[in-house]
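Collaborator request, handled under Task 6.
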Amino acid sequence: MNIRRPALLAAGFAATLASAATSAPPTAVESPYGEMRAYTEALVLILNRHVEKTSFKDLTYAAIDGMLASMDPYSNYLRADDLKAFDDDSEGRFTGIGIVASEIDGKWIVDYPMPGSPAFRAGIRAFDEIVAVGGEKPADRSFDEAMERIRGEVGTVVVLTLRREGVDAPFDVSVKRAALHVPTVQSARILPGGFAYAYIAKFGEHTSAEFYKALPGLLAAKPKGFVLDLRDNPGGLIVEAGRIAEAFLPRGKLVFRTKGRIPAEDNVSYVTETPREIGDIPVAVLVNAGSASAAEILAAGIRQNDAGVLVGERSFGKASVQALFELDARPDEGLQLTTAYYYTPKGDMIHGNGIAPDVEVAQTPEAFRLATLKRLLATHPELCHTNDLGQVESAVDAPLDAALAHLQRLLATNTAPASAQTAAAP
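Structure tokens returned to the collaborator:
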């Protein structure tokens, strides 16, 4: 995400006005004056004559929101609270109680409490059903609205009504909200069989630092191969994905390029600058329908440079660049605007298409949730109550198993990707 001042945007608009003023005769398409006049007249009529009273500010917000909604679903106008939440999310800062939850068949189910979080300390467990949030039930709120209400302000208390298997009746749990730091690189470890594994939940400001902090310990074990898990990774900061690519690609490889309206600003490329840090080992990247944006771009960069294979399901298909423009008129707000598209090293368009894996392995959301718990149990066995432990430990992670089997076959036939075989050379 790029943060830009609006100078070029304002200059471009001024140039349009100047052109309209000096051209003879201006057409309706060339001049914005007629359109702005119609907008102003409608604004004043709505303000003065609509049966429901409103304000200039509310109408302006509505107009901006409407303009952006007509363009694409990823452009947004961020109010002050939205902008702060965006910054916190990018930096891995969250306010809330520390649970990961899903909506399954109309029910709100706790996937797991984050280790050490207020929810964890309050005794909330994986598989608990959230019957109500502050007395409001699923019929009263959407899932997203309920999760937003759980977040709240630091130091305040939220009351969750839970239903738990083995407990006769629903019960209330009061949890005090806190500021949380959630690592984006999780479960970095050596799997049975000698393969390195790392799960990246999203790409925030500290993702590459977290990854390269964990990498020496993984490489010290001399792994046979590497599994990079990007399932359900919604993306984030693309430069962080590029920095991760440095570990898997030789120097001088194109990871991605962007193309937009203003070449000087929007057309950029990311080319690796360091040798392949993981050495001469094969790589498998796990993706699914929840892998989007920077996750898809990293996966495509690895595959199209012949440095690894993709295993799992077709990715989401979101590969547009959102630049965040600061506003002089309202410095605490911002315009998140789609300005370009990402393209793979071979020039493929990911946006709207997604990426098909080399090895397709389907997995239900419930199976992935159980597999996630099983993954976390490797480092935090206290996450699940003993009544749930058997179900989690018996969970089968079919895409991961397929990735490991593929790496084993590569090793057995000595057909690791060519780029991986020569990666140690700068």
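The cover message to the collaborator said: "Confidence is low (pLDDT under 50) at residues 1-28, 418-426. The radius of gyration is 25 Å. Please let us know whether this matches your experimental observations."
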